[in-house]
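Amino Acid Chain and Its Fold in Token Form
===========================================
What this section holds: a protein sequence and its matching fold, both as plain text.
Structure line: whole-number tokens from a learned vocabulary of local backbone shapes, matched to residues.
Purpose: to set a sequence beside its fold so the mapping can be learned.
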Amino acid sequence: MQVITPGMIPTLPALRNRLRMRHLQLLEALAEHGSLRAAADAIRVTQPAATKALQQMEGLLGGPMFVRHPRGLTPTVLGEALTRYATTVLADMASLQSELAAMAECMVGRVRIGAIMAGAPGLLTRALVEMNRAYPGVQMSVRVDTSDILVQALLAGQIDLMIGRVPEGWSTEHLTVDLMADEPLSVLVRPGHPVVGSKHLAGDLIRQTWVIQPEPSPLREQVNETFRQWGQRPQSIIETSSILTSISLIRASDMVSILPEVTARDFEEMGAITILPLSLDARLPPYGLITRTNRECTPAMSRVIETLHGAAHGMAA
């Protein structure tokens, strides 16, 4: 049995500086093939080069790593120890390569998405479901807010992309905008509300308390324009940018709200609200995908963008 003495053990700097990747590859090949010639062929070096590499390792460890016999080589205790770690290092290297390849194929990564409330339940929901199916390794976070808040977050690097619109008066110098869909509006109340079935909806609605977005926001501008067209404003208004707060208030009272149609349809399908058959001229301008012009897309971002385009196409079909 091979005897290991303290003087044979190389220092850590010596191991790091003198062991090379070709040494580890040779050890793995020797463990697999059992002969120096076959191992040299496997790693595509000459036999003299393989012999030299083995001698370098034995010189580093201060003792023989293999016992030579007519049938090939048998590892000593030193040889077994170093071969075991060589196999681990090379396996980790293979794992690294797989991870890098997965990153290139967008199998892993993180994308932070901002969305206005119209984009969240329809377009974004479809895209997230598809991304989760096709690329489960991609971590996605979603922030729902108004466009003015989201644009600030985008420019500050707090989100990677957004579904929304550039607010009026904002510069698009550092933004790339790809329009996707328009945004009709709907007036909604709780199921069984007294105005349901009314022949004078506008007049009946204006006497109710309205739950609407605070100013300034594109949606609030359209709501105010609707009130101007009706020639009067409601006496009571509650302002909130929270969809859930709006829905909760509507369900618990005779309050009225106005939301993007795609958002309202989702809650109506769940039986939470009733959309009134009221034709509105007010319509929000088209929203789209917005990114920073000077930001290079990661593979994960590129896949999210492609999936969003596919979801938008599917909704338009």
